[in-house]
Sequence to fold (521 residues):
Amino acid sequence: MGKEILRVEDVRIGFEKEGHSLFRAREKKEVLQGVSFSMEEGEVLGLVGESGCGKSTLSKVVLGLQKPDAGKVVHFSANPQMVFQDPYGSLNPSRKIGWILEEPLRIRGGFTKRQRREKALAMLEKVGLDEKIADRYPNQLSGGQRQRVCIGTALMTDPKLLVADEAVSALDVTIQAQIMELLLKLKEEMGLAILFISHDMRVVYQMSDRVMIMKDGRIIESGSVDEVYFSPKQPYTKALLEAAGILEERE
Amino acid sequence: MKRKTNKNLILGGLLVGIMLCMIAVGFFWTPYDPEAMDSADKLAGVSFSHLMGCDNFGRDIFSRVLKGSGTTLFVAVGTVLIGAFFGMLIGAFTGYFGGIADEILMRVNDVLFAFPSILLALVFISLLGSGTYNVIIALGIAFIPSFARIVRSEFIRCRDMDYIKSARLMGAGSLRIMFVHILPNTVPVLLSAVMIGFNNAVLAEAGMSYLGIGVQPPDASLGRMLSEAQTYLFSAPGYALFPGITLILLVLGFSMLAEGIREQNQSGQG
Fold:
């Protein structure tokens, strides 16, 4: 397969519990207990697990928004980007869409005003939105439109790695399908590797090349989609598949 | 989308507009020289030649009200500018970075906050000496804590939003995030705070001039005039009445405008 783009080695992180007393030792909750994996260029790696298993913490560690207590995160590409779960919190409400799309270029520098505008409009087209949207404010858009803008903003600087943390979970089913299609299309066009985080087994199945199952801060099973979905080794994976109604359908 | 007519915004805007026009006129032209005395007209009543009568030195009250509201407005605007600017800086840094600096600055803020702003301004005046500019500085400093507090809470609300995280991922520096990404989101709240602060400043200036430590005679200001008028409350009620009414209208106008902006903003987000 292709070149390695991300390597995560034995990452550990713990948070101190709130409400500690003066006389008791502070309790630490281990959120990630030695997570290792690697990603290749242009692949979609699904990460599944129940709420609170450390998925989001892992995504923050991968992007450097949170420092791990131990372990290493090695990037082989510049500026990895992220698409967030809540399309209502991830766009600055007081700025127009065009401004939001141009901001990554403004931060990077070296573009004229016109170049920035042109690139922003081209990106709007790429994510399937009308040019007119550039002059609207985020609260004038629907959830699906907002998520398209978020994806577009993340891709403005041509990253090679995109982390999608529950990127379609807050959308309804038809919009989910559209956004997933868009992500796969952009992946092909831009040679993007996507770390696709979700609690939804079905969504991950449609998106991913490889899957990792996470439980209590550990990756308990990983492999190609077919391996994990058709011959799960861990009882927890089986339980997840059953809960999603995937096992029965095949039997 | 249903939209109620925003009476506060319209009425407040109208009132403030009229007051500002009068002040602008008073800046360039007044019917009489506001400082010219005429002993023949001492405490004259309302007439066509003196619309609001004359004061104890025979000065035309209408001219002095026009000029005086200008002084009052100048002091209020200056006060709010100083308070809002430094309050915004302090609030932005403490709210965004948090930590020990936040703790220390906010405790200092609490101490300042515990004094009524007039009292605090009195302390500064006794250090700086009286006079129009010193009043502005003193009141401005006294107003910093309230602005700092408001801006800080807005920054705390915004700093953990996803759009800030994504800006950080794009490589935006702290200053850029604070003033380009977060600050525009505090504008609606800041705007009403400025309006309310403005009202308090008008009243504080009037209060300080009334106590005789603000604007010095013979300059006119609304508070100064009220203070001088109290001796003649029964012989010439107009002397106290007209500056008082002007002061009330000015404060009322800005209060309504602030309330109107707040309402407008709420209906816009819903």
Observations:
- The interface with chain B takes residues 63, 65, 79-82, 84-86, 89-95, 103-104, 107-108, 139, 150, 153-154, 157 of chain A (CB under 8 Å).
- Chain A has two domains: 1-32+39-80+161-251, 85-158.
